[in-house]
Amino acid sequence: MSLTLALVTIDASDAVRLGTFWADVVGAKIHLTESGAYVMLGGGQPGLAFQQVDTPTPGKNKFHLDFATNNIAVEEARLLELGATKMGDFGDSSFRWVQFADLEGNLFDVAIEG
């Protein structure tokens, strides 16, 4: 017997707002529960979900999402336009990535594919 990773669920103060941001980032459709307290993004495995919480977990997030692109400059401009905050450039000539924070401060990275 084995498990299949189905969703990565992120706690959110405003699940609909954060889910909408990430749907725009990854080009996915939003699926809402009736209450709007749980938002899932369609397409792809594992999926992303956002769960409404009353009290956000304090401190730095313990994990983050990593994305790959063939053009960091284009993605950086697009993410900033969507409302992400650039946290910094990292790496060296052999591997480079840019770190961002989403609308609620969750960190994520974008690196060159390959």
TrEMBL record:
Residues 8-110 form the Glyoxalase-like domain. InterPro entries: Glyas_Bleomycin-R_OHBP_Dase (IPR029068), Glyoxalase_6 (IPR041581). SUPFAM superfamilies: Glyoxalase/Bleomycin resistance protein/Dihydroxybiphenyl dioxygenase. It comes from the Bacteria. This is VOC family protein. It comes from Galactobacter caseinivorans.
